[in-house]
Amino acid sequence: MNNKPTKATISFDNGAAPIELPVLSGSLGNDVIDIRALGKHDIFTYDPGFMSTAACNSSITFIDGENGLLYYRGYPIEELAEHCDYLEVAYLLMHGELPNATEKQEFIATISGSSMLHDQLNNIFRGFRRDAHPMAVMVGVVGSLSAFYFDSMDIREAKHRELSAHRLLAKVPTIAAWSYKYNLGQPFMYPQNHLNYAENFMHMMFATPCEKYEPNPILAKAFDRILILHADHEQNASTSTVRLVGSSGANPFACISAGIASLWGPAHGGANEATLNMLEEIGDISRIGEYLKRAKDKTDNFRLMGFGHRVYRNMDPRAAIMRKTCHEVLNELGLNDDPMFKLAMELEKIALEDEYFVSRKLYPNVDFYSGIVMRAMGIPNSMFTAIFALARTAGWIAQWSEMHSDPEAKIGRPRQLYTGAARRTVMPVSKR
Ligand code: SDX
Question: Which of 118, 247, 329, 426 has an alpha carbon 20 to 30 Å from 401's alpha carbon atom?
């Protein structure tokens, strides 16, 4: 017997007439109270940070925070990480189904065929200082794609949306790798279309014109898995940014550039870089207690990077897969005694036994181990979030496309609780 509510009633303690609102159910997860009619009653809801607010309906990704579950289009992340590669997952996020062999082959050819950048784009890199953070370069160069590929920016046209999506999936890795090469002062390495997506990125990151470079297949597979784990995650801050910017009709390149900017924050995608910087600062297992004390001290703005999550009140399933990937990569590289990994494992163990973290359901999230894997692969801390952005491009464009196909979608325009001055009169400056 389904005893789910279908209506909610808001009653007021001043005798005002109660308001009846529909309760909507999705296919999985929490029901929602549809408050769209509230505006007619001259009252709004108040929810800074959208702790309890659904801003859209979506069929792309589902998270069960209590039980630590993550599905892309219904497939558990563990199965996708085990059996698929990143381009298959990108196809799934965009189209709702995994590709068959022919669809996969065609998709790979489409993406490989668009991995080069317009040659003029080289000059944009050169406008940055060599020591610019890769995320600063990515925000700028991805945004500038709208100055080169404006033949596919009519967002009302599904074909344009798909062409822009393919161009972004294909070109963001090149932009990310070239932001690293520019930082190093090394020449840009062009994409090699015979390599798979992960191998190609590693080639553009680590190859030089002077010697042959063969990507290590085990590291490339681990890197591809990192991309899968980061591909999408419901309506997180950067995805909500992409949707809000896109809701005004802004072009897809500007929307993804805005998403990259939002992801850069240390509370969000910047946490992987911040986690490794934190582990390097802690330096030794003997200092873990000192940092846990700081994390609990409300007068100290230090937080334990890589811990906690807005939605997960259990272990982030991606962190568990990332920990396993850590073992594989460190094993492959003969770094089993990597002090950073040992420190991270000990920190995780102690924090998960600490009342402060247990009572607040603060568990390691995806960012806790990802930095250790990437560092072991020779990727510098400053590139971790750029790689997160590379991976999340698939989710951002899938969510952006879904929004533009949603008949209920409107320009995003939140209201506010006004707490400023009531009307008053301007006095001449001599009287102020
Ligand atoms: C990502 O949303 C997504 O899906 C994001 C993401 C994705 O894939 O897109 O999963 C990627 O961004 C993962 C999160 C990476 N960020 C970090 O690792 C940074 C450290 N984490 C915190 O900044 C924090 O946990 C957040 C930002 C992730 C979540 O913050 P919330 O939900 O706003 O939690 P909160 O601030 O309400 O905290 C509740 C309590 C507070 O203490 P009390 O006021 O109850 O005493 O928990 C404490 C917080 O002070 N707390 C922490 C903590 N995280 C929360 N205390 C110490 N260290 C932490 N990391």
Answer: 118
